[in-house]
Amino acid sequence: MSSTSSKRANETLANGEYWATCRERNEISAALNGHGDVFPQARMTVIDGWAFFYRNSEEVWNCNARYAATNFIVQQA
What is the reported pTM? Predict the structure, then answer.
């Protein structure tokens, strides 16, 4: 494992609002990885270590914040 991968895996997200963009390049890959409801991008709220993903103000998926930091491109909203 490279130092970049291990560093990213150890990152945690602070409580707040973010944009989460799928790392997968297409809808099929995203669906196979369980990220179909988030593809290509969704609003994400982090609260106490959990990431909640929203589309049109409706929650579509959630996971722990460490998983989100590792598996999505996360930008401050």
Answer: 0.84
